[in-house]
Specification:
Strand order of the largest sheet: 29-30-32-31-33-34-35-36
Low-confidence stretches: none
Mean pLDDT: 95
Number of strands: 36
Number of helices: 11
Distance between the termini: 37 Å
Largest sheet: 8 strands, mixed
Oligomer: single chain
Strand content: 35-45%
Length: 598
Amino acid sequence: MTDAEAMPDWEKRFRAPRVSLPDWAEDAPGRSLFVSNATGTYELYAWDRATGDRRQVTDRPNGTTDGELSPDGEWIWWFDDTDGDEFGVWRRQPFTGGEDRTAVPGLAPSYPAGLALGRDGRTAVIGRSTDEEGSTVHLAREGADPVEIYRHRESAGVGDLSYDGTLIAVEHTEHGDSMHFALRVLRPDGSVAAELDDTRGGTEELGLEVLGFAPADGDTRLLIGHQRRGRWEPMVWDVATGEQTDLALELPGDVSAEWYPDGRGLLIVHGYEARSELFRYDLAERELVEIPTPPGTVSGATARPDGTVEYLWSSAAEPSAVRSTTGRVVLDPPGPRSPGSVPVEDVWVEGPGGRVHALVQRPAGASGPLPTVFDIHGGPTWHDSDAFAAGPAAWVDHGYAVVRVNYRGSTGYGRAWTDALKHRVGLIELEDIAAVREWAVSSGLADPARLVLTGGSWGGYLTLLGLGTRPGAWTLGIAAVPVADYVTAYEDEMEGLKALDRTLLGGTPEEVPERFAASSPLTYVDDVRAPVYISAGVNDPRCPIRQIDNYVRRLEERGAVHEVYRYDAGHGSLVVDERIKQLRLELDFAARHLPPAA
């Protein structure tokens, strides 16, 4: 038996080669860019579809996933930070290979806030963010110094550059609500061509997002997303005339869209109750036609010049693959395929704010009560779906049931559900998780003496907060890259997240200290009774290490049972071996601290 054959399935899932949905150059569609873990670290790869050649573009110890292919297909831009701290500069490399160079020498390092590349191969619009400057947008042309065309203290970023390079769409939060963006369209000289702001003039908080300019010279139509009917839907806005064309698709879930390359139709992605589906919308006929896909989740989709659609699909039971409406697999990396897992079951539980959707996986043939892992998603504006995930599958392999909860704050269930967590941040989400916990125990699925609360990022934050505010509910907690001390986290985190915290909590720690205290795990650390495992990236700009150290110090002073693992990366790792190591440590911690079955 080979080493690979002897490897457990959960480790095979992490090591199996994966690829992202390939991006392709608008004017050279035979050239594509994708992300893969083929070397054991997630890096960017160039793919020449005509020859089949694939070439690794980046090679860094902590990996690279942020990249863009220029419309002419000649250049690959990629973001170069330091060990995962997300602070750095854009570099570029010829598609066919060659030396990396600083893409815009005149711009100092920053956090990225969007990038749009011109079809002339010489123009770029770069969004930046720093603690000192706030948000800026620069227009860069090869051979000239970059020119600042936008600046504001609040969060903003580049949405898109029009096909002919005459219009620049910017998303901004100058109104101070970083959960709901407004739109401004600029000319290359920085003057304002058009404005659209759904955050003003009404009692509801509504947001907008840029989906892309129409793919034709002189076409001033901008595809945008809006929330005017309580969910995300697409609309066409002609920024020259001001005309707004509401598509009124009458789909129940959130809808995103992109242009077909001919500009006559839209590729529609509809997400509803943790699944997704695809449609083509004909703009002239105003007709919506379904594009058949298997039940599960479409994580990304793109329409090709020949009218076919490529999409990244998976389900909880079946690993991801890049498929095409031609029926073939578009990009299948060499190497062994990932083992599958068990399908999810849908559970709906009545919670204090409405029906809560949970996704449940249990070992095949197992009957309860089982040791159960509540794996809480990050974000908070994100959601778990019927998609393949190696982490939950590993817990199932080890005999655990896994429950994932789309608490209030999650996307995909309407704007009101997403926006519900303001001011009582963390506490509202935990109410929904508690309702699902009660169902899991009363239904006979979960053993109440063997309950694990875990999650990463916001899920890690909710884990620590849940252990302190509901100490009798959980047997142990496993928190990855969490917020642990909310006030110190606010002081140290990147500026964009400070703006989000001000929106969620209604001000700064000085302005609303009682809200920060009520939502901070550090407030309740002395009430924690369950063993706690924490992992943290020492270069993390989102959940910085100092605030985690503050929390751990309090555990140490009490002599509380805990373990801490620090690693040299940012908000998570792009190295496969490191991901496997972290999950192995988590599994071992649970095995040592959970009591045996009654």
